[in-house]
Design goal:
The structure holds 3 protein chains of 3 kinds. Chain A is built from 7 helices and 5 strands. By secondary structure, chain A is α+β, with helices and mostly antiparallel strands. Chain A has a single domain, classed as Histidine kinase-like ATPase, C-terminal domain (Heat Shock Protein 90). In chain A, strands 1-2-3-5-4 form a 5-stranded antiparallel β-sheet. Chain A is globular, with a radius of gyration of 17 Å. Chain B has 3 helices and 6 strands, in the order βββαβαβαβ. Chain B has one domain: 2-Layer Sandwich (Transcription Regulator spoIIAA). Chain B is α/β, with parallel strands linked by helices. Classes of the chains: A alpha+beta, B alpha/beta, C alpha+beta.
């Protein structure tokens, strides 16, 4: 990890890199995001998985990456540029023994926190069947939120992941919070 | 009627809708951020079809590698249009949903759509 | 909302991401990319940084400098990783951009083959020995001589970086696994 000394030096780059290797990070992006960057990241991910992954795990990882990326982007659009510059988004893919780990971090408005938290808790409280029927219900009733179906995205992620979604919110100002998601996908 | 021919890209599928040749298919990957505007021409085309065509036995093929949740709702909208085309004006629709042989998620997605719409739904492995 | 104490005890990946986020803030980093490098990533990262520099109203000259140095750095990484791809396909490269104390800094890190280290060290030492005029002369010489190495002119790239930055290049080589060293390069671009 980057330590807290104030001036960065060339040796610190390797320390950072070693930490990434230790956590088996395959890909990390941290910074401001746009659609073409996210597309480039997806195609890199695909190339990386190609060589050493079976079809269905690969598809799940890619599918979840797409949803995550679009989740980040949805929140992101409404932010002011100075917040985008100051608080970067994070997208990470790691491979930890038998599981892929996809993590995202991004700024959201404080008034969205409760809603997202409720959705996550709801999704996490459901088993496979419960998730399926919730998914079907939302599809049928067309209850897609005005921001393009955030609910459906999380449900889909939970279904494909097959594990509980970990999350964390931390308040960074009166207006904004930083929102972290960790999603695991069994390699099979 | 006009032929709709959309060439696939990194994040959008290839779509061919050709009433004359009786070719109706969607294939590739569907990951657009703004799925609604991407699929709008498809929905419009199907509306046109419903009002102008009769006696067509439509074999509608869907062969997707991936789709995002933004697209999932639009696929349902397309299938709902097919539902209304089916058994009107002597038209009939048979939906063929393809999935790769090891892709359970895509197979399940097909099964789920078949529960959501009243259509002849055939799941096909490739 | 959970607090920091909770997080310290939290599962590793969550903790890891949080520390990344904090580290990035405390280091004034604007962008980190670690992974495989492709032409698309290169283009996307460049346009992203350009947009950011524009949004903060950075001076045109500085903007151009940062942009040019980034291009050279990213293309250097692409070249090196091309070489390495077969041997160590899990070992990716790293690229960072930050702003601190009125200067931009650009960091790159990538594994390189042992056999290329000596030549690279010599080039770096030569470059750091020269002043502005010396760098210009060397640049002109390399350009006119056309002595571009078979890996597409890494020498010229570094000279160009040094000229644009106006500062000494900071670098280190760390032992990695057999046959590879990790090459870190830090470039500072003062705003005035």
């Amino acid at each position: 990890m980057i330590n807290n000394e104030s001036i960065i030096e060339s040796k610190a780059i390797y320390e950072f890199y070693k930490n990434m290797q230790k956590e088996n990070v395959m890909l990390l992006y941290q910074g401001d995001v746009n659609q073409s960057l996210l597309n480039a990241i997806l195609s890199i991910t695909e190339g990386k998985l190609d060589t050493n992954e079976n079809g269905s795990a690969k598809k799940r990882v890619l599918n979840i990456m797409v949803e995550c990326v679009q989740n980040i982007y949805k929140h992101y659009e409404h932010l002011e540029q100075n917040i985008k510059n100051d608080y970067s988004s994070i997208l990470m893919l790691a491979l930890n023994e038998d599981k892929y780990i996809i993590s995202t971090g991004n700024v959201i408005f404080n008034d969205k926190v409760e809603l997202i938290k409720n959705k996550l808790d709801n999704v996490n409280s459901l088993d496979k069947e419960g998730l399926k029927s919730l998914y079907m219900e939302i599809m049928k009733n067309g209850k897609i939120s005005e921001k393009g179906g955030a609910g459906l995205g999380l449900i889909d992620i939970a279904r494909k992941s097959g594990e509980k979604i970990e999350y964390h919110f931390s308040k960074i100002s009166e207006t904004y919070s930083y929102y972290i998601l960790v999603i695991k996908i069994k390699k099979k | 009627m006009d032929v709709l021919n959309l060439k696939g890209t990194d994040d959008t599928p290839t779509i061919v809708l050709n009433a004359e040749e009786k070719v109706f298919n969607i294939s590739g990957r569907s990951l657009p951020e703004d799925a609604a505007s991407f699929y709008n021409p498809v929905l419009t085309w199907l509306d046109d079809f419903a009002t102008t065509q009769s006696g067509v036995a439509m074999k509608f093929e869907v062969k997707l590698e991936y789709f995002n949740t933004a697209s999932s709702k639009l696929l349902l909208d397309i299938f709902s249009k097919l539902e209304s085309i089916n058994s009107n004006n002597g038209n009939s629709v048979n939906l063929e949903w393809y999935y790769e042989d090891d892709d359970e998620d895509m197979m399940e997605a097909g099964e789920e759509y078949s529960e959501l719409v009243e259509l002849n739904f055939t799941l096909k492995q490739y | 909302m959970s607090n920091l104490e909770d997080l310290k005890n939290a599962a590793t990946p969550l903790n890891f991401i949080y520390k990344l986020h904090e580290g990035m803030m405390s280091k004034n980093l604007k962008l980190i990319y670690e992974g495989d490098f492709s032409q698309d990533i290169l283009k996307a990262v460049l346009s992203m940084t350009e947009k950011q520099l524009e949004s903060i109203g950075e001076d045109g000259k500085i903007k151009k400098k940062v942009f040019n140095i980034m291009v050279e750095c990213l293309q250097n990484i692409c070249k090196h990783t091309e070489d390495n791809k077969i041997k160590i396909n899990h070992k990716s490269a790293i690229f960072m951009v930050g702003f601190e104390n009125e200067e931009y800094f650009i960091c790159t890190g990538n594994p390189i083959k042992q056999e290329n280290v000596e030549l690279l060290k010599m080039k770096l030492a030569e470059i750091n020995n020269l002043d502005k005029e010396g760098l210009k002369a060397l640049y002109m010489e390399v350009v006119s001589r056309g002595a571009i190495s078979d890996r597409g002119g890494a020498g010229l790239g570094l000279i160009d970086i040094a000229r644009k930055s106006g500062k000494k290049l900071e670098y280190s080589f760390e032992e990695m696994e057999k046959d590879y060293l990790f090459f870190s390069l830090l470039i500072r671009i003062p705003r005035n």
